[in-house]
Amino acid sequence: MVACSVELSVLLPQLVDVQVRQVRAGADVIRIEARTRDGVARACPGCGRSSSWVHSRYVRHVADEAVGGRPVMIDLSVRRLYCENPACSKATFVEQVTGLTERYQRRTPGLRRVVEAVAVALAGSAGARLLAVLHHVLSWASVLNCLMRIALPERDAPRVAGIDEFALLRGHRYATIIMNAETGQRIDVLPDRKVTTVSAWLRDHPGVRVVCRDGAGSFAQATLEADPAIVQVMDRWHLWHGLVEATLKDVTAHSSCWGKFGPPLVEGKRAQNTRDRWRQVHELLDQGVGLLECSRRLGLALNTVKRYARHTEPDRLMRTPTYRPGLVDPYRGYLRERREQDPAVPVTRLLAEIRARGYGGSANLLVRYINSGRVEADHAVMSPRRVTGLLTTHPDRLDEDQHRLRDQLSETCAEMTVLAAEIQSFARLLIPAEGDAAELTDWIARTRAADLPFLHAFATGLERDRAAVDAAVTLPWHNGRTEGANTKVKLIKRQLYGRAGHRLLRQLILLN
User: What are the backbone dihedrals phi and psi of residue 484, each rounded to the nearest 5 degrees, phi first?
Assistant: First the structure.
């Protein structure tokens, strides 16, 4: 058996500058008795002058990091020294040992860093539970106090700032996060999203020359009030998101066009009522009756009248039928091939054939599947959202079948062809280039010439914020880092069960 001789100062280097008198290793705690050395001069925290003139001694109890699964408690005898500077406001002061003690602290700097790291990561009760596993017992309130005492990093105002909002209580209370759009550093968290608050912050930080934001009018107004010379840049992701939403509405309005390749539209009382209402609304409009008066005469909501007035054909108000995935779907190709070979094949024979292939559903389910026309359709049931996804996905990310389906869908009518082409044109504008502002003007003109009412509304929104949109398609800056930080903010909020106020959230957001 080889004896191990390791000095205590090697295991606990923070004890190098003190005299260790005794070490007692108990079952629950390791207790170390030590004292500072006499004759060593210490600097006064008030004036910085060194002194070794002893006033008295007393014992401090300092907790240290755990060793061998047991907490360490250091009973340290320290000196109270006189300050030898008559002009200093401090008559006496207590000496501090570097790496071992700090003023007003009952934990060593090493343990303080551990507690602070846990507090920043978890805070509150979760942090207290983790510290108990690490053999340090603290209450949730102590963990929060340690968190709030951490000094926030000082960061200069960015030249390019990203601004975005996040919900403290959705629909009621919001806060604003400000970031350096170039480096991704979190600069500040404001308690609300009011124009006055954001504008005051921008005036207090005149170094900000560019602001990246979403389409919120409050941020645009706040930036304009703070300094009209600040360049505002609309976030390109929000531009694309707005286009996709408009595309979804136009695709839905043309369901009767692209839906003919899928299961046939359901004809019934609802379809007839839709056509009758469309005819009544357009007859009144042709007579010069206003939308509000149409609403009163027909007993319909104003938004409903607007929806009927927006479409030039009643079939554009029809929606493709929606079917959930069923047990017959895996055998659709086989059923279609068999019915093409023998149109008069009995359903009972088809049922027996697909049951031999593994079908476990009923005969009634198969009959309804065939009668709905889902077998003869060129493709399976498609929702407007899926059609929009095909039209807005980069062509390089589509396989051969998706390419063929996309081309088929975009050729169903003239409006769908124009829509598919304009989506690709707008996507190219989102790669910033010097001449994209002029290209955007042409794009808006082409869009307004087409019969795409929802894309018209999107183009109108671009015109209202044209300066910021032009900056988005010509300048390299964006708000992506701020949006990413907002995702992390949501995680922090959920860790705190949504009960954290602005002050605590601000501390966690800026320290994480």
Answer: -65, -40
